Amino acid sequence: MELTALCQGIRLQEEARWAALDFWRETDRDRLTPALDLLRHMDTEAQGRALLKDLLGEDRRQYKLLACMLSCGADLYSWYGERGIPDQIYFATMGCFPRFLEECRQITGVPAFDRGWWTARQISGTLFRLGELEYELRTGDGGPWISIHIPSDAALTPDRCGRSLDWARSFFADRFPAWAGRPYLCRSWLLAPELRELLPPESRILAFQRRFRLEGTETGDREYMRWIFRRDPAASLADLPEDTTLQRNLKRRLLEGGGLSVGRGVLA
Question: Where are the alpha helices (DSSP H) in the chain?
Answer without folding.
Answer: 3-9, 14-26, 29-39, 45-56, 63-75, 77-82, 87-94, 96-108, 120-123, 158-175, 195-198, 204-209, 224-228, 245-255
